[in-house]
Amino acid sequence: MNDDDVLIHVPTKRSFPKVRLVDPQPYGYRLLAVVVDRRLPFAYAWESRRKRRLLAFLNKQAAHLRESDGVRDVTVFKALVVPPGRGRFLKERPNVRVARYDIVVLVETTTPEQAERLDGNPHWSATQLEIRSVAPDPFEIFGTNVRSLGKVDHKRAGVFLFNYFYADRLDRNLAVFEYTAGWFQDQTRLDNSTLMLPKTKTDYTIINHARWDRLRDIVPALLIKSSFRDYVLRYFEANQTAAMPILYRLA
Q1: Contact by Cβ (8 Å): 47, 54
Q2: Domain contains 2
Q3: Is residue 119 part of a domain?
Q4: Which is nearest to 115 in space by CA: 145, 148, 84?
Q5: What pLDDT, in 10s, does the model give residues 25-57?
Q6: Which of 19, 99, 140, 225 is within CB 3.0–4.6 Å of 244 for a Cys-Cys bond?
Q7: Which domain CATH number covers 196?
Q8: Would residue 9 count as lying in a domain?
């Protein structure tokens, strides 16, 4: 079965090429996200004292985790802005947890099994406990990479996307990702992306992670380009897919 067998195509004013993919990464991923400060979409520059303290603690634990066996990378992110893109479909699924996470910790491990076994690491356990002491309902998954546009560079500052998708069907969600990601490749010069498939039960079908150098590389395209609404958002809606994007920076 190919994408055209599951995807609902919609007439649009302009078409875009399907995304150009590379082989997925063979690594495992552990993602821990939490809401600490509730802010308006463009008001994340102001941070509470408890958020600053938590970020300092998380970065300290991240330094220890990077030295652990089986861990390739650990990165702490803090929210920068919530762009448009959620659409109307989410309103039809009121039980789906709406992504509003202003802190994310992402661990990359040498294998998917290592990501699952991270619970035995004392520094990861300390990270979990500290986050729960600040916000009692964090979101956590381990997963694998199912689609890739290229590895996301965490060594340089930039604007980092975590896009939390929900769809009733995984195959349709993957198909609509490949079509809409082609728009981002064409219109924002996106050259990296790690699409994570959660291996634990969660509200989100897939989670996309990507990076741009600057806000102006991505935000104007979302706000100004009519093709974002006419093409990307219409494909999401027609295929009953909710995208919950949040842009972050390194913490």
Answers
A1: no
A2: no
A3: yes
A4: 145
A5: 999 999 999 999 999 988 999 999 999 999 999
A6: 99
A7: 3.30.70.100
A8: no
